Amino acid sequence: MRFTSIVIALLVLFVGANCVFVVNEGQTAILLQFGRIVQTGFTPGLHFKLPLIQQAQRFDKRVLTLDSAPERYLTSEKKDVNIDFFVKWRIADPSKFYVTVAGDESRAQQRVGPIVKEGLRTAVNSRTLQELVSGGRADVTQHLVAEANRATQGLGIEVVDLRIKRIDLPEDGTVIGSVYERMRSERKKVASQLRAEGAEAAKTIKADADRQVQVINAEAYRDAEKTRGEGDAQAAQTYAAAFGRNAEFYAFYRSLEAYRGAFSTPNGTLVLDQKSEFLHYLQDSK
Hints:
Layout lengths: L1 H16 L2 E4 L3 E7 L2 E4 L5 E4 L5 E7 L3 E4 L3 E4 L5 E12 L2 H8 L3 H21 L3 H5 L2 H16 L5 E12 L5 H72 L1 H16 L24
Antiparallel strand pairs: 1-4, 2-3, 2-5, 6-8, 7-8, 8-9
């Protein structure tokens, strides 16, 4: 009797546990009966079902992320670019989602990925590299979201957003080489311009320095000539005064100065007439 009661209690617990199911926050669910959908649209909370006959299939109704590996695309100029992007999507219709991909998120992402990549390939092929990089990214993503929603409508999912994380030039592509070459040419142009400006500034500074040197030399020569003239005038006055006091001494002094200048050259030869006035003070005097 006791054993029978235990069995009945376990059976009641088992049946009771299979009569209810819980839908958590952030989830939605469908109710299956022999593999056929009989009810959808369950809200979070406790719900009832027929035991052993009906099964509850729960799905995540939050926004999910498909993070794709970078793909290589060609622009309208036939230039290679690597584009890294991710897709935000969610389950919009649990019934369609279960029928099309058996409620498997990974299978859904495998279906969404090629659709987005093909749309992105078409969008990139119709744009130049400059349009794609400088402002065309937002237009591309908006267009791709609309196209992806039309293509995935039968899957029971909704593409919420698509974002391009990065656009790179392939290392083995020709574009990056041309970009580097253009940058190198621009740097050479700037360097040449700076060198030309520096050479022009150097010439200006040198010309100004030469002008200042000439001005300084001219002023120094002017001052020297002025000083020399003043000295000569003062010497002439001194000589005139000396000549006025003693003419013979003055003549003798001037002759000695002339001798000093004439005989200052070593090994020089001076040919004069013996009666020359220049030798007056060198001759014997009575």
